[in-house]
Amino acid sequence: MTAGHPDTDAGRLPRLDLPTTAVRDSFLAGERAICAEDGTPTAWLDEAAADFGSLVERRRAPRYRWGVPVTELWYVREPGYLGTVMIRHELTAALRHDGGHVGYHVVPRYRGQGHATAMLAAACDRCRADGMTRLLVTCRTSNVASRRVIEVNGGVLDNQASGICRFWIPLLPQPAPVPDPDPDPYPAGAFVASPSARIAFR
Ligand SMILES: CC(C)(COP(=O)(O)OP(=O)(O)OC[C@H]1O[C@@H](n2cnc3c(N)ncnc32)[C@H](O)[C@@H]1OP(=O)(O)O)[C@@H](O)C(=O)NCCC(=O)NCCS
Q1: 187 falls within a domain
Q2: How far is the CA of 201 from the centre of ligand 1 (A)?
Q3: Contact, 137 vs 167, CB < 8 A?
Q4: pTM confidence score
Q5: Which residues pair with 157 in a beta bridge?
Q6: Separation of 3 CA from ligand 1 center, angstroms?
Q7: Which helix (H) or strand (E) element contains residue 15?
Q8: Is the residue at 162 inside a domain?
Q9: What is the H or E stretch that residue 135 is in?
Q10: Tell me: the pLDDT tens digits for 97-138?
Q11: What's the gap between Cα 73 and its chain centre?
């Protein structure tokens, strides 16, 4: 958290979901801060501000970028936009070199709070549910924070060349819940009406 930006929403749990018009102002401000950091043009943000609904509609729809089908997801802690995850459902030769299956960024003022780590974990869950079995994730060798995000999410370094690290994250199936050998006869929420037992909502 940057000094001067108290994180008043810190108690709420963020969610990774499709783009939404609900975070218009914080999305525009956050992406403007990222453009300023990267020195990239902001004309697209002026267009987005003029018709945010259209931007959201386009980004929610199935679409192709980098020559592959992508899903764009926004990380949101109501009512604020925290960052974006881009899932690329296939790889090209270029993406195998740099880009991989998943890209992400966090708005500068929300960095260093574990959001990227949680975003990538949520993206892994989503990809696993979609039937993907492993994810290629790449980052610049110098990007210490991104490297850490990948490693904490189980990334295994495959190779490192031309200033880029390539990691594979295995998406192991989630283990099935183990049946309780001694189940509670009065589970929470059950109405118990036996005269010889408790009568209660638990
Ligand atoms: C890289 C980025 C996504 C990290 O986001 P973040 O929300 O700050 O990451 P987290 O808070 O989850 O931190 C992840 C780890 O990196 C560490 N970290 C965060 N910022 C760091 C920094 N500037 N230098 C070194 N380590 C850093 C954290 O301590 C944490 O390590 P830990 O798990 O050992 O505690 C963010 O800096 C960003 O958006 N950068 C610009 C875009 C980008 O580089 N995207 C990735 C492309 S591959």
Answers
A1: no
A2: 45
A3: yes
A4: 0.85
A5: 167
A6: 18
A7: strand 15-17
A8: yes
A9: strand 134-140
A10: 999 999 999 999 999 999 999 999 999 999 999 999 999 999
A11: 7
